[in-house]
Amino acid sequence: MKTLKTTLLFCLITTLAFCNVSIKEKNALIAICNATQGDNWAVTWNMQDPVSTWYGVIVEENKVVELDLSFNNLVGTLPKELGDLINLRTLNLFRNKISGDIPNSIGNLKQLKELNIAFNSLEGRLPNSIGNLQALVTLELFMNKLEGNIPSTIGSLVSLERLEMFNNDFHGNIPAEIGLLTNLKEIYLSSNRLSGKIPATIKNLTSLEKLNLFDNSLFGAIPSNLGDLANLEELILSDNLFYGSIPNELANLQNLKVLMLNNNDLKGDFASLAKSIPNMIQFEYINLNETNNSVLVDTD
Predict the structure, then answer these.
(1) pLDDT score, position 297
(2) d(CA 212, CA 232)
(3) pTM value?
(4) What does the pLDDT look like over 265-282, one tens digit per residue?
(5) CA 162, CA 25: separation in Å to the nearest integer?
(6) Considering the domain boundaries, does residue 152 fall inside one?
(7) How far is CA 67 from CA 25, 49, 60, 98, in A?
(8) DSSP for 120-133, written as a single string
(9) How far is CA 97 from the centre of its chain?
(10) Is residue 6 part of a domain?
(11) Which backbone phi and psi does 128 adopt, to 5 degrees?
């Protein structure tokens, strides 16, 4: 019996040992807790328990690889120690009350594949260091108060498939470097203050399925090279300052299901375009200062 107890104790100690994380990572988690009023979280942490048992924390091989504190009433700011969680693959802080800047140390999380800090009250600029996250597949920062230019370093996110930064206060041009993200499938940049033209480099995004840029101040002609994006299913450019003729090349988008061009100053044979695209479900193109040609094309 004594031998059995000794064996069980050894197994328990061994198991706990394999659940330990580095002091640096544990301190980073504690810093996040302290900076976001951890005592008032919906689900709190017992600091006396192993880190592997803390709510929302996933540990593999003594490394913190996932932190999911979404919907958990985090109130406060993100500390610079966040960047010490260098083994994170997923960081999800969706729908909390986090304010302040995104720390520059976010760029240390080079293993990160999913970053979701959407639906908070983040302010300031998106740091240039975001470009260090070359493993990132999804970037979700929508419904915050982020401002300034979208940094050109975003062009380094070569693995990115989904970019969601709508409902912020970004301004300036869409960086031409976005054309380097050839794995992108979805872009959502609506409801910001973006201006300038759609960059010509958009033609390189041949995997793109959804392009949503409505409610900005983008201007100029709609680029004809959008017609090269054969996988495009949704193109929403409403509520901008586009002008001129709708390029005939859009008829090449045979997979397009939704095309919305409302509140611009465009010309063209809208109905014929809609009918030339077999999968079209919704096509809206009310022009600025016109009240009698509100058209929703039903292609059935």
Answers:
(1) 53
(2) 11
(3) 0.90
(4) 999 888 889 889 999 999
(5) 28
(6) yes
(7) 12, 17, 12, 15
(8) SEE-SBPPGGGGG-
(9) 18
(10) no
(11) -60, -25
